[in-house]
Amino acid sequence: MPTIPLRCPALSLALLAISAMFAHGDACAAAPDQSQSVRAEQSVPGDRWLEIDLYWFDHGNMRQSVAGFWERFAPLFENIQGERGLILNVGWTVGYIMEWNGDPRQRITLPPATGQQPWVSQTAPLDGDTATRMRKWKERFANPVMVEKLGYGPWTYADLGGLAALLRTTAKRHGVDNFKVGTLVYAWEWAYGEIAPWVKKHPESFSARVPKIPGRAYVKAYRYFDPGNKLHADNIKYAAYPDGYSEGTPVGTAFARQWGSLSKEINLDALMLRDSFGFMVPYSRRGRLGELMPSPDAIEKTTTDVMTFVRETKQANPRALVMMYSNAATAIGDWRANGCDLERVAKDGFLDIFVDQTWAGAWNEVGVRHYSFWNQPPTGWTYQLGYTLMHAAMLAGTRVKHYPLIETFDAWESWDVLHTAPQRLRWAIWAYSHAAIKTPGGIRMPGGSYISWANQGKRLLGADDVAFLSGAIGDAVRDAARTTEVFGPTLVYTRSAQEWQAANATPAGDVKQWIDEQGASIAKWPVPIMSATRVEWLSQVQTDLPIVQTPSHLADAEQAVLLKRVEAGKPLAAFGSFAGSIDPRLLAIAGIRESTSLEPEFSIHQAVNDAFDARDDFAGDFPREFPVQTALNKTMPDSAAISAKGSRVLYSVDGSAQLVTAGPDKNLLLWDPPDFRMGNQQSLKEIWGGGVAPYAMTAAAINELLRAGAALHAVKVELAQTGAIGAWRTSDGKIRMLAGNTEEGLRDDADRSRHFTMKLPAGWPKKWKSSSGEILVANDMGELEIHLPPDASAMIEEL
Q1: Residue 339 to residues 1, 219, 290, 336: CA-CA distances in angstroms?
Q2: Alpha-helix runs per DSSP H in 78-156
Q3: What is the pLDDT of residues 25-38, one digit of tens each?
Q4: Phi first, then psi: what are they for 770, rounded to 5°?
Q5: pTM for the whole thing?
Q6: Which of 43, 79, 582, 667 has the most crowded Cβ, counting Cβ within 10 A?
Q7: Average pLDDT in the 534-547 region?
Q8: Of the candidates 303, 385, 298, which has an alpha carbon nearest to the alpha carbon of residue 340?
Q9: Nearest-CA neighbor of 791 among 4, 124, 129?
Q10: How distant, in Å, are the alpha carbons of 356, 433, 444, 446, 734 from that of 437?
Q11: Cα–Cα distance, 42 to 21 (Å, whole number)
Q12: What integer pLDDT is reported at residue 211 of this predicted model?
């Protein structure tokens, strides 16, 4: 089968289309006209949105700017079945809404300076060992590229409305009907260098987070716009308040009324509530009041404030869509750390779209930021898949459309993922577009894509970039719509357990409920996690292995399903603290006594590989001892009970079992996971407290359970060989596997290739083709070797 360059239009045959998109990461060639006509006939399910900064449009030559925009981006919006739209960044502030006085001739207050970070040439990943890559990183940022930086022109509100109208009319000439134009708001006091004037007038609209906790990693977040606060009186004319604010006017109500007036007057179609709206502390698993919300009352107030704010904003202009951004860190932390129960907000019925800000490469890749070689690994590639899956589980029973974000380069920051790590980006497009939620009614996939950014200074995405994005996203989304079965483990969201935790919240109530973080951590060795479900649906969906979040305080019927599954010998894994977040009946099956004693703080302990002492083959190349960062429970394993039940302690800390498998007839795995803080400017290994082995050992144990169930699994887990893997079947009966070499910061040597072997289930084909063009053949035992060059991704399809 011939190789087709990455940017080229896909053919109608699914196998050829997918192979084409994975063939190359850069070099492209012209495609035959016949292929172009086939592409034109293919429509793409779902919605598509693009984000651009207002500063890119030439205020003095708006018509020419809009023509240039559509000449470049029309292919990105062709053949999209759902909504299509553009979100404009209007100066990183709420000020343009809050200052609106009702006169379209009013000048919008915008930052006069540019404030963008330095941009440099980023056309490939840095190679070599870690020391060499650090040196090359410094060299990279020593040579800035003179991309023209832009400030904002003298825009009025009439100009903004005129730009939106011109974008729509020009869209029609390009065959894009019903195009929507909206704006975004940003909840911090300032971004990239300047505090907005309205913030200085009404600082009471903003709230601060608690001070830094000594010894903890701290992601700096500024004071945030708080819809629950109250405004002081003023006598300034506003569109919704001609006589000014009255003392005590709710901040959220004032914003909603102002938005309603402005959006109706200049005809805006959507509002994106971006960073720190809803989830006040972004990019981190912590909230405005500390590591965890300290009380049920604090959680209730935050959730009610956000829910009321979204409702009032939608009601102020029901025609306009209301969109919300995730905080980029654990979805479980939305509720327990930030205090906002997203599911309740969604079920209130006024939120239209939720976007997981899956800037995975912007946080995972090394040497792409001017201020630090290391990035923020806990918001990297596999982690964003885990967070997207959990949000999908929360939103599955609501009307809210759920999108992943597709990153490119940045209009303000220094990184460039599209040109530095295109194969990893391609993995993300496919993985996040296939983030499946398993429901009683079938598989549900994301409802659209949100692409950011369209520009970097004056530079737009190139024509090749647009072709790559259009082709990769289109093929991935079409394939996801045809998916009928997703293989591998399924993360199980336990809503009832989380409700109990919220209702009994304390500042020290961390029960290791971070199932998305934990699943994403073990997925690196390679565990094929591509789906999620809810515990109340578990008996009605099919999965090779449910990985259940903190199964304690569940409804009786939910707990009965778990116990029945274990008694029947079907594989089950449960993650959570053995001190209070796993039902005592599940612990007892493995011979473990529940304890309520827990260390008050997380610290680094020395763990023992018990499988090594037992001369268990499972020990593999895992070290005899290794560090583990955890709040240690004082549950002492009952050796006699464990032995009598045929259970194994795979590793322990100070005699306390941490990873246990019950068997041989039970196929139950219990893990009291390590913990890590959402640090940045460190390698992942450092953030994990130096403890790689706990995650790799758990991945090996999960693969053992998959083997017991005759499901797809890794033949052997090796500490040094990471890789992401996923597999699914489409309506044509074909099976596809997606593999990615996505990790940074776990090894320091110059060999960045990765290698692993998957055991295929009985009945799967023996002969496969990789998107690299290589023919792969499983051996007589059904074992398929996968070799990934540095930073590579591959689609592996049956022949």
Answers
A1: 53, 18, 11, 5
A2: 95-98, 130-141
A3: 443 333 334 444 44
A4: -85, 155
A5: 0.94
A6: 582
A7: 98
A8: 303
A9: 124
A10: 15, 11, 5, 9, 20
A11: 15
A12: 60
**Quick one: CA dihedral 694, 629, 533, 571, positive or negative?**
positive
DSSP per residue, 572-594: EEEES-TTTSS-HHHHHHTT---
Long-range contacts of 348-351 (CB under 8 A, 24+ apart): 348/307, 348/310, 348/311, 349/399, 350/310, 350/311, 350/313, 350/314, 350/315, 350/322, 351/310, 351/314, 351/322, 351/324, 351/400
pLDDT (0 to 100) of residue 286:
87
Token representation of residue 100 = 């609106």
The CA distance from 355 to 391, in Å, is 10
- Cβ neighbours of 64 (radius 10 Å): 11
Q: Which two tokens stand for residue 594?
A: 């529940």
Q: Which residue has the tokens 């079938």?
A: 442
Both tokens of 223, joined, read 């004071």
Nearest-angstrom CA–CA distance, 356 and 36: 32
Question: Three-state DSSP class for 349?
Answer: coil
| Residue listed under structure tokens 């398929």 | 784
Pick from 799, 781, 612: nearest CA to 710: 781
Nearest to 282 by CA among 234, 342, 218, 231: 218
Tell me how far apart the alpha carbons of residues 748 and 129 are, in angstroms, rounded to a whole number.
6
564 by DSSP, 3-state: which? helix
For residue 271, give the nearest of 202, 193, 352, 214 by alpha carbon: 352
Q: Are 245 and 326 in contact (CB under 8 A)?
A: no
- The one-letter amino acid at 612: F
Over residues 612-667, the pLDDT tens digits come to: 666 566 667 899 999 998 877 655 555 556 666 778 889 988 878 899 998 778 89
Query: For residue 21, which of 767, 744, 738, 789 has the smallest C-alpha distance?
Result: 738
How much is the pLDDT for 19?
A: 47
Neighbours of 499 (CB within 10 A): 14
How far is Cα of residue 698 from the mean position of the Cα atoms in its chain? 22
The number of CA neighbours under 13 Å toward the Cβ of 357 is 23
Would you call 317 exposed, middle or buried from its count of C-beta atoms within 10 A (0-12, 13-18, 19+)? buried
| Surface-to-core class of residue 521, CB atoms within 10 Å of its CB (0-12 exposed, 13-18 middle, 19+ buried) | buried
Whether the CA torsion 550, 555, 556, 559 is positive or negative: it is negative
Partner residues linked to 406 by β-bridges: 451
Q: What's the rounded Cα separation, in Å, for the pair 276 and 635?
A: 39
Amino acid occupying residue 85:
G
- Report yes or no: 529 and 491 within 8 Å, Cβ to Cβ: yes
Between the two ends of the chain, the Cα-to-Cα distance in Å is 11
If you compute the radius of gyration of the chain from its CA atoms, what whole number of angstroms results?
Answer: 26
Contact status, residue 361 vs residue 424, Cβ threshold 8 Å: yes
Query: Residue 595 corresponds to which tokens in the numbers above?
Result: 């304890």
Report the alpha-carbon distance of residue 294 to residue 623 in Å, rounded. 38
* Residue 481 CB coordination number (10 Å): 16
Residues 315 and 310: their CA atoms lie apart, in Å, by 9
CA 510 to CA 631: how far, in whole Å?
9
**Per-residue burial over 673-691, b = 16 or more CB atoms within 10 Å of its CB, e = otherwise:** bbbbbbbbebbbeebbbeb
For residues 406 and 430, what is the distance between their CA atoms, to the nearest angstrom?
A: 10
What is the identity of the amino acid at 79? Answer: N
Gap between the Cα atoms of 243 and 560, Å rounded: 61
